[in-house]
Design a protein that fits this description.
The protein is mainly alpha-helical. The protein contains 32 helices and three strands. It has a three-stranded antiparallel beta sheet, with helices on one face. Helix 2 runs antiparallel to helix 3 and helix 25 packs parallel to helix 27. The longest helix is centred in the C-terminal third of the chain and has 18 residues. The radius of gyration is 29 Å and the shape is globular.
């Protein structure tokens, strides 16, 4: 049991043997064991085919708990086989099935971003099912689909409109969510929703505005109706209306003024929605800019209002010099606010400026020790936007690399990677992270090192040693990092002179490929010598007794990179193995 509990905190890909063992535990007599095995499997985004097939068979198991655990275990899969999708839909539409089993089946299906057409057709039929749970689950799964056929959109629209009168709030919510995720609704649906915006029932206005909030482009009549709703007596309607205007460019002056009023006087949720809508207006009129500056300078105002005003100003493509100075001064002051949300907004706004004065940079460095992890992460990102950081900021970021907060650490790695020239201490700290157990950390560290124009020999050696990393993304990042180094070929030749390193040829071959897109070069063997022909001349190494070993490594490398890169050496039906 302790081992199972430990697996729940692992963020690595499990071996096939471990997955097989966990799959077997789904039929264990202990409910606790089944639950932990399920949760462990759910963390795996891609299960081996054999394990997936076993799980599909278990969906037919006579034990209700086994079916529930199995469906939940499939919920973490980014791409399910067709047999699994069919089995899960069967569970979903079985009226005699346990409610929890159907819920877990819906959760597994909702994780699929692109279901086959046949599955979508079945789900559309289930929207009309007599069982409200089945209807709700079907709508929930359809909400995960980015593009639905017109018949599904029309059915969902009719269902939302019809059920508004029957007060089936759960189904309404799920169906509305499904419609909201469709970025381009047909005109008939838009027209129906516009009509609902005028309804006397605030619940209906809320739902209609919520659906329209997902549209990238709305007709003028819809925009005008939403602008009127900004002054609705219900704050939820106001919030949804402001959100629906977020993607609409060049709002009329009346709408901008109303949004600024909401930024000052609305509830926090409404303020946030109004701020997002205003930030999409990249060129606000001068009158609006002046009002926002006045809000910034009004120290009697609530910190939320001032930080939202600063955030909107920071999003503008062009501000007068005086406004920029006022903005930065006010933001530095807001960084000391007691409210963590205010500090977060101020930090985010500062991050939009690529050249901050020393006082602002120092204030951000201070926030790296903030008690709120979101504030620390945003401060780190803001520092990362600066083209050149002082030593104090670099040292503070290095300290964050050893922290337990993964989000802050990732931001620190990214911030250091954006600096064109890092001191040795920062490079060494990033090299240490190449040994981290977290694949994302190793990948990010390699990417950050790859942005350095000149890495020390120790860093290059470390990257080469890790070209055998089990994670393909990490290997790719190491490859790109090495390919960016101008002294790469000299280093490779030095390593190849050591016969024990010939096994690394397979991975180094990928580096040469990347490098070949930057500089003209050719690689060939002549008289038992390995020769690299570059613009600056020839370099050669005698292969000696390692000749056959070298050729075998090259053959493996070409086969590997063909499989990952669309058959670079295979043409006209030629098999890579024959090359």
């Amino acid at each position: 049991m302790a081992i199972l509990q430990t697996l729940l905190y692992c963020r690595v890909r499990f071996s096939d043997a471990l997955v097989k063992t966990l799959t077997g535990l789904l039929q264990d007599g202990s409910k606790s064991v089944r639950l932990r095995a399920t949760l462990a499997l759910e963390l795996q985004s891609q299960l081996p085919g054999a394990a997936a097939n076993i799980l599909v068979e278990l969906l037919q198991n006579g034990d209700r708990d086994v079916r529930w655990s199995t469906a939940l275990g499939l919920a973490g899969q980014s791409q399910l086989p067709g047999t699994a999708v069919d089995a899960l839909i069967d569970l979903l539409r079985d009226r005699g099935e346990d409610r929890q089993v159907r819920w877990s089946a819906a959760s597994a299906l909702a994780g699929q971003s692109q279901l086959p057409g046949a599955a979508v057709d079945v789900l559309i039929e289930l929207l009309q099912d007599r069982d409200r749970d089945v209807r709700s689950h079907a709508a929930s799964v359809l909400a995960s689909q980015a593009h639905l056929p017109c018949i599904a959109v029309n059915t969902l629209t009719d269902a939302v409109i019809e059920l508004l009168w029957y007060k089936d709030w759960d189904f309404q919510s799920r169906a509305a969510s499904a419609l909201k995720h469709q970025s381009q609704l047909p005109g008939t649906t838009i027209d129906a929703l516009i009509g609902l915006l005028q309804d006397s029932d605030k619940a209906i206005r809320r739902r209609a505005a919520e659906v329209l909030a997902g549209q990238l482009q709305l007709p003028v009549v819809a925009v005008n109706a939403l602008i009127e709703l900004l002054q609705d007596g219900d704050w939820v309607v106001q919030s949804h209306a402001a959100s629906a205007l977020t993607y609409q460019q060049q709002l009329p002056g009346a709408a901008v003024n109303t949004l600024i009023d909401l930024l000052q006087d609305g509830k926090r949720v409404v303020q946030l929605s109004a701020t997002k809508a205003l930030k999409q207006q990249l060129q606000l009129p001068d009158t609006a800019i002046n009002v926002l500056i006045d809000l910034l300078q009004d120290k009697d105002r609530d910190g939320n209002v001032r930080s939202h005003a600063a955030s909107v100003l920071a999003s503008q493509l062009q501000l007068p010099g005086a406004a920029i100075n006022t903005l930065i001064d006010a933001l530095i002051e807001l960084l000391q606010d007691r409210d963590g949300f205010v500090r977060q907004c101020a930090t985010e706004a500062l991050g939009c400026q690529s050249q901050l004065p020393g006082t602002a940079v120092n204030a951000l460095i201070g926030l790296l020790q903030d008690g709120d992890s979101v504030v620390r992460s945003d401060a780190t990102k803001a520092l990362g936007c600066q083209l050149q950081l002082p030593g104090a900021a670099i040292n503070a970021l290095i300290d964050l690399l050893q922290g337990r907060d993964t989000g802050v650490r990732s931001s620190a790695i990214e911030a250091l990677g954006r600096q064109s020239q890092l001191p040795g201490a920062a490079v060494n700290a990033l090299i240490d992270l190449l040994q981290n157990g977290d694949t994302e950390v190793r990948s990010s560290a390699a990417k950050a090192l790859g942005r350095q124009s000149h890495l020390p020999g120790a860093a290059v050696d470390a990257l080469i040693d890790l070209l055998q990393d089990e994670d393909m993304v990490v290997r790719s990042r190491h490859t790109e990092a090495l390919a960016s180094q101008p002294q790469l070929s000299d280093t490779v030749f030095r390593l190849l002179r050591e016969s024990k390193r010939l096994q690394g040829v397979k991975s180094l071959y990928g580096v040469w490929l990347f490098y070949g897109f930057k500089e003209q070069l050719s690689l060939y063997v002549d008289d038992n010598s390995y020769i690299l022909n570059r613009q600056r001349g020839l370099q050669a190494i005698s292969l000696g007794a390692s000749n056959r070993q070298f050729f075998a490594a090259i053959r493996e490398a070409r086969q590997l990179w063909s499989s990952y890169n669309y058959g670079l050496w295979a043409s006209d039906g030629e098999d890579v193995d024959d090359i």
